Amino acid sequence: MSIISEFKAFAVKGNVVDMAVGIIIGAAFGKIVSSFVGDVVMPPLGLLIGGVDFSDLAIVLKAAVGDAPAVTLAYGKFIQTIIDFTIVAFAIFMGVKAINRLKREEAVAPSAPPVPSAQETLLSEIRDLLKAQQQNKP
């Protein structure tokens, strides 16, 4: 088997295609959640905590000299990233929780009772006849 045919067999397997679709959808979903966090959640949260923007917080390790930029420890961006991650993780948790609830409701939906087989029906009739004979005995 040549390398090209092996690669083709690998690439068209269901798992690889499913994984690729999941990654693409995950990236798109990540953009939606990032927009939700940055554009919907963070503005009211920033207003609530007094307009603090953590991304501006930094410690200057070495001041700017001439054309060389200042060397800073931007711990505020790190704090902001942690807050963003926490909100994104919570949003994903709530989404997965909702999806799981829908799956449980689907699973709980009652199904039609199974139709008894011909053998079971025949055995039930025999049982009923035997019960009737025992009740008719004096």
UniProtKB/TrEMBL annotation:
It is found in: Cell inner membrane; Cell membrane. Keywords: Cell inner membrane, Cell membrane, Ion channel, Ion transport, Membrane, Transmembrane, Transmembrane helix, Transport. The keyword Cell division does not apply. PROSITE patterns: MSCL. InterPro entries: Mechanosensitive_channel_CS, MS_channel, MSC/AndL, MscL_channel. The keyword Cell membrane applies. It holds the Pfam family MscL. The chain crosses the membrane at residues 20-38, 78-96. It is a multi-pass membrane protein. Belongs to the MscL family. Channel that opens in response to stretch forces in the membrane lipid bilayer. May participate in the regulation of osmotic pressure changes within the cell. Homopentamer. This is Large-conductance mechanosensitive channel. It comes from Pseudomonas cuatrocienegasensis.
